Fold this protein.
Amino acid sequence: MAGINELSRLLKEISPQLDSTPYVFCTVDKPLLECLTLDPIATFVEHEGLTLVVKQSVADAHELAYSCVMNKITLQVHSSLEAVGLTAAFSNALKEVNVSANVFAGFYHDHIFVPADDASKAISAIQNLAT
């Protein structure tokens, strides 16, 4: 099934869902295979090292440094990887309520990591896009 491209439909069906698990972004200087025991929910390879998104409890148990604790918001709409404007729409909504966002796009959904203290404010701002 192909994802949705039409911005008005994406916004109407945006359906943000909050995962209140405390997640953190960490970086390690190890190959991904060595980090799989940390059960990362997302990874990204950068020149400076491997970025891992893991539960805060895992990072603490392995003494991994991080700067802030975040919650994940998943947009339940199946957005196309080629859709134009969705990221801008929710980014602008979050900017209006002064909430930072780190975005990962999966094949089916967009996942937005926001500071845990701002999660309910972020959910409300994104839900308002559907009206």
Notes: The chain has a mean pLDDT of 95. Residues 7-130 form a domain with the VC0802-like fold (CATH 3.30.2130.10). The chain has one domain: 7-130. The first strand starts at residue 16 and ends at 28.
